[in-house]
Inverse folding.
């Protein structure tokens, strides 16, 4: 089985961009192994973006993907923020946190002309978007240097929308997937289908290639995704224990434990639904709480709690991103995992 | 690929038992085509059960499966019932329904010695259970006549429990599946994983054969399920339009429309979570409402509304059971669909 031409890589496998738990090291390791490594850019400053791209361009043996979010940054809403902090107040008290300790903002920037200016210097061959697509002129700039554009769809409607608005391939993100749901046409979680049901439906709806994401944890699952009609897969969770990641010790421990069997889609960590291993704050106020401010603003207050708790080696407030199948996680080099995942192709 | 020995059928495919939308006709058609047809028994009276089994035993060319629920019937709770009716009051008023029109009970009986007495006359070769397993002595009776016992697991924990308590094979029911979630160790819906993530995890956890269920809609999906480690598949939704079903015209119309793209897990129709196409009552008060009485008691009041609405050709209150992938539904004979589904094995 081949068919990775549209990705430019030897193997039709994308390492899922995972903001907060990896940098260019994982990207380079996967790309050098013949699959498509990804660099998550949503949390990078312009300087960091340029420096990551400079190193990757110099050192990476193979094409790579850069990933950006396409959300609308919401205005600061003092009332919403205040309701959120009141909900979290008992935890603030527990850790001796005062309102002054909480920064303004959520730390995640949508794709912008400033970012495109930097990208243009390096012309990365593949760019993937989460939460829709950027504005028409921004997309035109990216396409102008010949980049292949991928974007996440969580429903058939989103897949059709992305195809119609210029995506070159669509990532069908099943509900099994870890991290943020890419949903952008609806906020209704009942629209979200599992990978097994979603992939064949998206495949039959669009003419562009479909990349299966969500629950892909070993070579057999990669083969199964191809059986469902996908032309490539995107794998995130399985890479989380690789040495080239920045996965924290607490996150690693959770992934290796039986706790990883129980994940939930939660909006507590950023304001948008994302799948995490269930921890204390999810059990106590979530997983879905109406008081969480709009993405990414919920991350500010929760981030302070996380920081203080993690200093005590406690993951009660940490986003423990994880898909519904963590059995593929292995503490091996990313190149070796990439070879294992693609061994049946 | 073979491996259906443990089912006794030529093909490793089970037609999912679908109480309320099928009788022995579908069972016989599928079993005669070489797969394992199922007879849903939870809604049958003792007389109906005996007569269905008598016809099947005489006419069915091949083994078949009988399916029972294993819930605990809850005591009638007048307060809970009253809260539920108050919630539904505006709909009752809309249809001129009074409290006296609502029967007591929910119409679904768990497996019992009375049912086993009848089964014993016919000794069906396969019996499957939903919501756990029956009591030890009941299970011993079933095993006593040599029946193969299947049971649904929605989590790894449930699969291990079923293996330990005597199931001969486990049906890994992914969240993609239509109809009732078989969950019995937890009521927490965040424990429910998609088929793609669940099947490999169950396969690696238990030593008994695993049957994949949820989102299996065509021959490619059957092959994909085998890639994930399943030794058989269970397919429900795809059969719903076959002529041998009792699927109502309203349900058929919904399945054939774009509405089938949007399903939700709802407790409104019976009190237990089950996947249905989204309709008016789900949109307006659900999909999950705390006021729904315990299974199966919610069905009483909702059933009256359903009856009245359906008389007006309206599916606002009908359980439109459907998995997350209805694209496999075809208006063809069940034998033909069975051949199509097994064509890549």
């Amino acid at each position: 089985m081949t068919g990775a031409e549209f990705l430019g890589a030897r193997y039709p496998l994308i390492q899922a961009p995972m903001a907060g738990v990896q940098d260019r090291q994982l990207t380079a390791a996967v790309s050098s192994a013949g699959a498509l490594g990804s660099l998550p850019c949503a949390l990078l400053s312009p300087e960091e973006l340029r420096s990551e791209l400079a190193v990757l361009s110099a050192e990476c043996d193979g094409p790579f993907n850069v990933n950006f979010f396409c959300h609308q940054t919401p205005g600061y809403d003092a009332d919403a923020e205040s309701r959120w902090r009141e909900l979290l107040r008992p935890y603030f008290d527990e850790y001796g946190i005062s309102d002054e300790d909480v920064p303004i903002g959520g730390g995640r920037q949508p794709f912008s002309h400033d970012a495109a200016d930097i990208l243009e210097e390096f012309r990365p061959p593949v760019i993937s978007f989460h939460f829709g697509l950027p504005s028409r002129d921004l997309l035109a700039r990216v396409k102008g240097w010949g980049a292949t554009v991928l974007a996440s769809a969580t429903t058939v409607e989103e897949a059709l929308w992305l195809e119609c608005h210029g995506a070159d391939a669509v990532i069908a993100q099943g509900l099994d997937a870890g991290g943020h749901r890419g949903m952008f046409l609806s906020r209704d979680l009942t629209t979200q289908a599992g990978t097994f049901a979603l992939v064949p439906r998206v495949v039959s709806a669009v003419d562009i290639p479909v990349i299966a994401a969500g629950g892909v944890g070993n070579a057999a699952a990669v083969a199964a995704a191809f059986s469902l009609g996908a032309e490539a897969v995107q794998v995130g969770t399985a890479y989380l224990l690789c040495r080239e990641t920045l996965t924290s010790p607490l996150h690693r421990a959770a992934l290796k434990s039986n706790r990883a069997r129980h994940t939930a889609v939660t909006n507590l960590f950023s304001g948008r639904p994302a799948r995490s291993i269930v921890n204390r704050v999810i059990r106590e106020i979530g997983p879905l709480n109406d008081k969480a401010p709009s993405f990414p603003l919920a991350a500010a207050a929760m981030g302070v709690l996380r920081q203080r708790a993690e200093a005590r080696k406690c993951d009660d407030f940490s986003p423990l991103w994880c898909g519904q199948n963590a059995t593929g996680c292995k503490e091996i080099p990313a190149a070796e995992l990439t070879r294992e995942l693609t061994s049946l192709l």
